[in-house]
Design brief:
Elements lengths: L18 E5 L2 E5 L2 H14 L9
Antiparallel strand pairs: 1-2
The structure holds zinc ion.
The site of zinc ion has 8 residues, from loops.
């Protein structure tokens, strides 16, 4: 494990099985499906220019 066990959206620790979504060729981990959906909505708002600085 790379130690990436916090949700990139809300920053909470992922205690259960992480939700992994592949966005723009990168995989992101979320603590729950709701966060993944929220991020997808944000992405659709910002369009292709949307990128992340979470690491
Ligand atoms: Zn979250």
């Amino acid at each position: 494990m790379a130690g990436r066990d916090t949700c990139i959206l809300c920053g909470k620790p992922i205690v259960a099985r992480p939700i992994v979504e592949k966005i723009n060729g990168r995989e992101y981990s979320f603590d729950k499906q709701e966060c993944a959906l929220t991020l997808k909505k944000l992405k659709s708002v910002y369009g292709s220019d949307f990128c992340f600085n979470f690491t």
